[in-house]
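so im writing up the methods section and need the Putative pre-16S rRNA nuclease record in one place, dumping it here so i stop losing it
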Amino acid sequence: MSRTIMAFDYGTKSIGSAIGQEVTGTASPLKAFKAKDGIPNWDEIQTQINEWKPDLVVVGLPTDLHGKALETITPRAKKFAKRLHGRFGVTVEMHDERLSTTEARSELFEMGGYKALSKGNVDCQSAVVILESWFEHQWQ
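--- predicted struct ---
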């Protein structure tokens, strides 16, 4: 059985999202949700969750290059993950997102040059990188 997995790249101004299938181990960007001081429009997220009905939601865990928590953003990403679970009853896992933004920018640039590097595109591509990294981690 293949599970549908949704991923979020949490940020205080924008939250990128992606969807993927466990059987293929690949992900596609969905949309970036604007956030006010880290708080999204929960109705928009509800709409996306209702549409895709994910079996699992993966939220990127921001850390420094050594895997240590970052003072302000790490606890906020964890709180976002808890709220997803609390509001929508979805199973949520956190996944290390070190270097996801750097990797996303490089992939987008390869696909479309500077024009592809809009904030929303980068956030959604970061969610793709987080999800594909999560898939790889499952198969190790």
